[in-house]
Amino acid sequence: MAVEEDAGVRFQSEKSIVQSPRLHKFPAIPLWYNLHMALSTKIRVGVLRGGPSSEHEISLRTGVHVLKNLPDKYSPVDIFVDRSGVWHLQGVVTETKRVLRKIDVLFNALHGEYGEDGTLQYMLDAFGVPYTGSKRLASVFAMHKGHAKNFLRKHGVKSPYHKVLRKENASKETIRELFKLAPNPSVIKPVGKGSSIGVSISTRMTEFETAVEKAFGLSDVILIEEYITGREATCGVVDSFRGEKFYAFLPVEFVHSQGSTFLDYEAKYGRKSRTVHPGRFSQAEKDAIQAAARTVHKALDLRHYSRSDFIVSPRRGVYFLEVNTLPGLYADAPFTESFGAVGVSFSDFLGHVLELALRGK
């Protein structure tokens, strides 16, 4: 199936026509297409993309790249979920249970809420559909940055000093007292958002109050943590790969644009930063990043693949920031570009992960 990057372009193959989810009208799927799908000897892979989360656009990019690169033994089935949570099968609004009956395995290309927080996983487990990515409880736990950090501390994974604050406890007096007690500068972020959405750095009381208000606009629970100066790194882990139970890729380094203090959403996706594959870390730093990424993946009982983010302080060492249980897999994503650094094709990775899902691993 040939798939265009532009979501406003109609996707076409010899035997199907799939229109972009951004268009209001979808072409009808011919009757013979359903017959073809039923008789196909290929394994039907539903690629789930979009979703009602704040990372909808990133998921669309991931989904398109996955659809383009599935190995030949698989038959791609495009499943789009719009922002209101309505499912579309090959461009046609379809009841969820009917969609799931049309596939053999689901590749979860959603990011953020709904797709990455255990909601989707609960439903798929109920329907008995094999899927890629972590199971429900691991997804729920990893999504909460505070819970994950506190748990990982017991496994020797070092995180910046932090406090969790709930909205119902956030009186003006409490916020001001927290500012006095928190390290300065501080990072304020929602506990359950990815892609640096809602993240701010504050050095003054007014900035702190504004940042807290911004984060609470996206989540009822926020994280306030120490801002550590250093180089940002990320490291992907894949299950049962290249003879290792938890294979860690070479760490990737993020390089900020001039004037940027941290890797925010615009820096990540608006071309205001660049990545170095592999990162320019010492052997000791690289080993520490990879060891921590493996520990995070194993300790949180994550499945198939994950990507952990770190800050590398020149004096204090490697600090864990957060883990992505479904990292971006678009063409130039840090996780995707990690494959090239070690001579692995994206198609081979997709095939490996799908095999794990089909075997229930």
Précis, in short:
By secondary structure, this protein is of the alpha+beta class. Helix content is 33%, strand content 25%. It folds into 3 domains: 122 residues, Rossmann fold, CATH 3.40.50; 115 residues, ATP-grasp fold, B domain (D-amino Acid Aminotransferase, Chain A, domain 1); 65 residues, 2-Layer Sandwich (Dna Ligase, domain 1), CATH 3.30.1490.
Structural class: alpha+beta
Distance between the termini: 28 Å
Number of helices: 12
CATH topology of the largest domain: Rossmann fold
> Count of DSSP E strands?
17
| Envelope shape | globular
Percent of residues in β-strands: 15-25%
Radius of gyration: 21 Å
Second-tier CATH architecture of the largest domain: 3-Layer(aba) Sandwich
Return the string of H and E elements. EEHEHEEEHEHHHEHEEHEEEEHEHEEHH
Number of domains: 3
The major sheet is characterized as: 6 strands, antiparallel
State the helical fraction: 25-40%
Assigned CATH class of the largest domain: Alpha Beta
Low-confidence stretches are 1-30
Overall average residue pLDDT:
86
Task: Describe the 3D structure.
Helices cover 33% and strands 25% of the residues. The model is unreliable at 1-30 (pLDDT under 50). A hairpin with a 3-residue loop joins β16 (305-313) and β17. The longest helix is centred in the C-terminal third of the chain and has 17 residues, at 283-299. The chain is built from twelve helices and 17 strands. It has three domains: 11-132, Rossmann fold; 141-158 and 229-325, D-amino Acid Aminotransferase, Chain A, domain 1; 162-226, Dna Ligase, domain 1. Strands 12, 13, 14, 15, 16 and 17 form a six-stranded antiparallel β-sheet that branches. A five-stranded mixed β-sheet has the order 6-5-4-3-7. Strands 8-11-9-10 form a four-stranded antiparallel β-sheet, covered by helices on one side. It is an alpha+beta fold and 361 residues long. It starts with 10 loop residues before the first strand and ends with a helix. It has helices at 31-39, 56-69, 96-100, 119-127, 136-143, 145-153, 172-181, 205-216, 265-269, 283-299, 334-341, 346-358; strands at residues 11-12, 17-18, 43-50, 74-81, 87-89, 92-93, 105-108, 162-166, 186-190, 200-202, 221-226, 231-241, 244-248, 252-256, 273-276, 305-313, 317-324.
